């Protein structure tokens, strides 16, 4: 394959004549607010910005960061979540068996205050597609709330660690697991399911934060009643107009096992009272077995937070043939587009398009490729659909070589961050392709409903770099700068008012770079790979800290045969300037697992 055939930005948005200069800063709503030094949800705010207003640690002193203390939860699966800080306590939850720990930040070394062990069913390990991971947890109303791998949601008292409620959402024996981060808005908890490769019916639900009672549930496929499409739904584009499209765009009887699970991150617009989330691949992954657009998979929904009613939806990859889940984060940014400030939703899809949508209506404002791709030859602005490259369509029983991106995209679930100081989005991405062979499959409850066999490799096919960190200008639809990395960058990023961006690599480096130009300012080798999400917070001593979990796993394991790939781990690292802990204590290491 010639690289020129799949370079980033080979498909640009329509020409614009903006009165705003390239790089003119946008903004976002920092709600729900809270103390600047706290970090009580995975993204810190409803907008999914992952931006911190703290600036004690900045470009002038970040080179002095040292480990202040460490903590091990003892679980050797992928560590994909971010620790949370509320007041004087840090809360962290392990991957399976999903043990929760409260750590006392008022004392040197942050000793354990309590441990909660929910003892989920071990059966869930065999049902999880891609490692028994957990992508996060949430704090609200005096509770720590999170999903268990065996399809339960639990709420734990922040002070005592006592279980307050536990709600069963599905039967794990039939293939449904839960790996997403619970998301709290007011008195509601929003959760979704995993299991797209098991032929589950994908859904997204709201629970009462006080009691755990289910308030509503909306499916990704099925009748309009199942999908909660009614009078409020506004189909902006003709392919979304019609009744029961969640059935009619499928062969008879297939929608009920059509996947569309929701295992990514959620965002919320408090002015519109809408929650936004994505849906996964259709099932089975063999496209010839399910002709049609397969609505509403590989898509985004905007729903009324109180009722669950769908207000609009947009499908990123119609009739998804490559496993390009649409679950990646939806960043709610206010951006100058075409000379006008627009309230937008920015989404880096697995299919390698960076979309900018109007978050009130679902109008597509921009669609630019951010990394190498060749599955599509461009974006059709009349139909608002990518144009499929016929040479890259999968075929049953035949190997189709060099499809870019592969099934995990050029960006998977790992969340980016946004800085209003620079106007840039910072995202970890991949630089890989796949050779794909399909075979027909049949649905058997609780077993894989897949049919894809992939061999992933670097874009150049010669062992080149598998990843990068990019700074993306969402207004111009172009990279501002990028940093090549030997391995896929599967950690989340955070941006700070100190003009820093923190991220980790799957071979175990944790790094800080200048948010304006990407200059490497600091790095530390950790004991395992980093696929989790860093945070920064103020300790009770008024000192700023940066924390991140190490523990490689999940989709990062597709690189495990590469030289230099690290062993699994389970260590949370907390850094400060000169490594000072609370009250000036010395660095401390501790193990909390069995």
Describe this structure in words.
- The chain is mostly beta strands and 594 residues long.
- A hairpin with a 5-residue loop joins strand 13 and strand 14.
- Helices cover 2% and strands 35% of the residues.
- The strands form ten sheets. Strands 1-32-33-34-35 form a five-stranded mixed beta sheet, with no helix packed on it. It has a four-stranded antiparallel beta sheet with strand order 2-38-37-36, with no helix packed on it.
- It contains three helices and 38 strands.
- It is globular, with a radius of gyration of 22 Å.
Distance, first to last CA: 49 Å
Overall mean pLDDT score? 93
Q: Number of helix segments?
A: 3
- Detail the poorly predicted runs: 1-23
- Rg, please? 22 Å
Fraction of residues in H or I helices: under 10%
Strand content: 35-45%
Overall shape: it is: globular
Number of strands: 38
Strand order of the largest sheet: 1-32-33-34-35
Largest sheet: 5 strands, mixed
Structural class: mainly beta
Protein name: Methanol dehydrogenase
Keywords: Metal-binding, Oxidoreductase, PQQ
Cofactor: pyrroloquinoline quinone
Region (Disordered): 1-42
Q: Characteristics of this structure?
A:
594 residues, mainly beta, Quinoprotein_ADH-like_sf, metal-binding, PQQ_MeOH/EtOH_DH, PQQ_b-propeller_rpt
């Amino acid at each position: 394959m010639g690289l020129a055939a799949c370079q980033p930005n080979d498909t640009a948005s329509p020409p614009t004549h903006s009165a705003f200069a390239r790089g003119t800063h946008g903004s976002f709503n920092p709600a729900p607010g809270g103390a600047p030094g706290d970090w009580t949800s995975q993204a810190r705010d409803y907008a999914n910005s992952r931006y911190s207003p703290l600036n004690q640690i900045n470009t002038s002193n970040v080179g002095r960061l040292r480990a202040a203390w460490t903590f091990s939860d003892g679980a050797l699966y992928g560590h994909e979540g971010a620790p949370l800080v509320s007041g004087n306590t840090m809360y962290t939850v392990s991957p399976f068996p999903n043990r929760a720990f409260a750590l006392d930040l008022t004392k040197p070394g942050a000793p354990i205050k309590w441990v909660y062990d929910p003892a989920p069913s071990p059966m869930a390990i065999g049902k999880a597609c891609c490692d028994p991971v957990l992508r996060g947890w949430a704090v609200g109303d005096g509770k720590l709330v999170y999903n268990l791998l065996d399809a339960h949601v639990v709420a734990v008292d922040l002070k005592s660690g006592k279980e307050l409620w536990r709600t069963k959402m599905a039967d794990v024996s039939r293939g449904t697991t839960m790996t997403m981060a619970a998301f709290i808005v007011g008195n509601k908890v929003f959760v979704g399911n995993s299991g797209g490769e098991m032929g589950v019916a994908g859904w997204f639900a709201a629970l009462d934060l006080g009691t755990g009672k289910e308030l509503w549930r909306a499916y990704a496929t099925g009748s309009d009643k199942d999908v909660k499409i009614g009078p409020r739904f506004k189909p902006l584009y003709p392919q979304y107009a019609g009744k029961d499209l969640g059935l009619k765009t499928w062969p008879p009887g297939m929608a009920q096992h059509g996947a569309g699970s929701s295992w990514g991150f959620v965002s919320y617009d408090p002015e519109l009272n809408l929650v936004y989330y994505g849906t996964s691949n259709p099932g089975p992954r063999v496209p010839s077995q399910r002709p049609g657009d397969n609505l509403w998979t590989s898509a985004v929904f905007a729903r009324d937070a109180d009722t669950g009613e769908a207000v609009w939806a947009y499908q990123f990859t119609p009739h998804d043939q490559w496993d390009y889940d649409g679950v990646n984060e939806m960043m709610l940014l206010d951006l100058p587009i075409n000379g006008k400030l627009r309230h937008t939703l920015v989404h880096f899809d697995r299919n390698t398009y960076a979309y900018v949508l109007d978050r009130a209506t679902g109008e597509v404002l921009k669609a630019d490729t951010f990394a190498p791709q060749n599955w599509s030859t461009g974006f059709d602005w009349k139909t608002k659909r990518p144009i499929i490259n016929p040479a890259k369509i999968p075929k049953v029983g035949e190997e189709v070589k060099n499809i870019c991106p592969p099934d995990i995209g050029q960006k998977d679930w790992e969340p980016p961050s946004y800085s209003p100081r620079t106007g840039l989005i910072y995202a970890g991405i991949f630089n890989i392709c796949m050779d794909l062979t399909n075979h027909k499959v049949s649905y058997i409850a609780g077993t894989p409903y897949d049919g894809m066999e992939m061999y992933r490799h670097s874009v150049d096919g010669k062992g080149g770099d598998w990843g990068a960190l990019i700074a993306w200008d969402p207004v111009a639809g172009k990279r501002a700068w990028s940093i090549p990395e030997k391995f896929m960058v599967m950690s989340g990023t955070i941006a700070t008012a100190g003009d820093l961006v923190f991220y980790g690599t799957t071979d175990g480096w944790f790094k800080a770079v200048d948010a304006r130009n990407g200059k490497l300012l600091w790095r530390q080798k950790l004991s395992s790979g980093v696929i989790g999400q860093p945070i920064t917070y103020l300790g009770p001593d008024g000192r700023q800290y940066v924390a991140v979990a190490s523990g490689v796993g999940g989709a990062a394991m597709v690189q495990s045969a590469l030289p230099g790939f690290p062993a699994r781990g389970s260590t949370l690292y907390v850094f400060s300037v000169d490594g000072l802990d609370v009250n000036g204590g010395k660095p401390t290491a501790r193990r909390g697992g069995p």
